[in-house]
Amino acid sequence: MPITVRDYLTYYCDLTALPRRSDLKLLAEYCDCCCCYSSSSSSNNGDGDGDGDTNNGGGSGGNASSHEENNPNHSNSNRHKEHALNRDFLRRLASHPDEYKTKFVQGYIGWVHLVQLLQLPNTIPLAHWIALWPRLQPCLYTISSSAQVHPNTIHLTVAVTQAKRRALLPRAMQIPQKKNDNHQSNNNLNNNKNDGDNNNNKDKDHHDNVHNNNDDDDDDDDDDIWFQGLCSSFLARRPRTLRALVRPSSFRLPPNPSTPILLIGPGTGIAPMRAFLQERHFQRQQQRHQQLTAGAVGPTILYFGCHAPDVDFLYHDELREYQRQGTLTELHVAFSRPSDGSKSPKVYVQHLLLQPPNAASTYRYIVHEQAYVYVCGGVPMGHDVHAALEQILAMPPSPFPPFVPEASSQSQSSHDNVLSSSLSMSPKEYLEEMTRQGRYVQELWS
């Protein structure tokens, strides 16, 4: 079915996406063609036959400035120089990965910004642009609500990604790194007005850590624009309708409700953990309603991490209420950047796991009670948690090493091949076996 160009650019192209180095190399060829065209035009315009009324600047009362503005040779010459600068700049970036990373990746230079910044030739055919511009890709989020509790709505946990950058950057050779901030916003996407659950939103398909450049002290807001995560910013505007595809998740509760579950989800990795908590709470209510005593819902342990309790402790009240009602057996929270001004070491979820009491209980839940372990969040965190679990499983339940937050959690444990008194295989093999059994599930994003 035919569509308009506007609809195609609006609904099918991602114009905020980062141009690849191969794209820059191709754009440089277009600039090169325009340079040749400008040079040819300039030469032809200079070979007049004398029939025109061209002012060569020698007459009395001639204005040099006015002559330059109206002289097509001068205009073509300027365009030629501009396209030549852009061509050389694009070629250099295409062949220098480090400079490309600094000026484009860390600068959040998307297709729209690139075209505006360099004023690329308008002679590039639309069909060529469409071939260059990347297609809009689906953004996948883990549902943060239980279908049993909210059968008619879907909750998401999304953070809006924003990065401050200069709008009026110097052209070509002087493109600096952007100056930016990363702001998080919590939004409720539940369209049911009778549902009062607070839903906090985070965009996982964009960067969590944003590079800061403080070399430019000019904070004039008129000269600043914001890079905005495409999907998260759209959701933050709370559209009345949106296209969505619901597909099965790899996160599934144990078949037996009495099985303990260990949930590790810092930041917006708490999304599936919140859904599990709602489901467990529903199961407890069902048992209480049916007055069942056998097969009670098992322990639920949550490890959550954020910057500070008054900044981004998502679902704080909800988690405390689950803990008060007994649905949440244990709640462990790691604060990496306390806002009280203290200079205490940064603590992450993997550090809490390695604390002696927690390590002992984790060992008992996993080895003796066959607990299920769920991890959701960034890739570095997932690697750190995996290393911490290997370290816990590599040692007897006690004693455990002292808790040292600043110690590198990514280093491999020297006990990788040491067998615990209750394990018949190495910790690495044990976790691999748990993965095959569906008892150890990770959902990580970069």
| SS field, number of helical segments | 14
DSSP helix fraction: 25-40%
In angstroms, what separates the terminal alpha carbons?
Answer: 36 Å
Strand order of the largest sheet: 5-4-3-6-7
Shape: elongated
- Average pLDDT metric: 75
Low-pLDDT runs? 37-69, 167-224, 399-421
Structural class, judged by helices and strands?
A: alpha/beta
Q: Whole-number radius of gyration? A: 30 Å
- The secondary-structure element order is HHHHHHHEEHEHEHEHHEHHE
Oligomer: single chain
Q: Would you report the number of β strands?
A: 7
Beta-strand fraction estimate? 5-15%
Outline the biggest β-sheet.
5 strands, parallel
What does it look like?
The two termini are 36 Å apart. The protein is built from 14 helices and seven strands. The relative contact order is 0.09. Strand 3, helix 9 (271-290) and strand 4 form a beta-alpha-beta unit. The strands form two sheets. Strands 5-4-3-6-7 form a five-stranded parallel beta sheet, sandwiched between helices. A two-stranded antiparallel sheet has the order 1-2. Helices cover 38% and strands 9% of the residues. The chain is an alpha/beta fold. The protein has helices spanning 5-11, 21-45, 64-70, 72-95, 97-105, 111-118, 126-132, 230-236, 271-290, 316-325, 349-354, 356-368, 379-394, 427-437; strands at 162-166, 224-228, 261-264, 300-306, 330-335, 372-378, 440-445. Helix 4 (72-95) crosses helix 5 and helix 13 (379-394) crosses helix 14. Residues 37-69, 167-224 and 399-421 have low confidence and may be disordered. The longest helix is centred in the first third of the chain and has 25 residues, at 21-45.
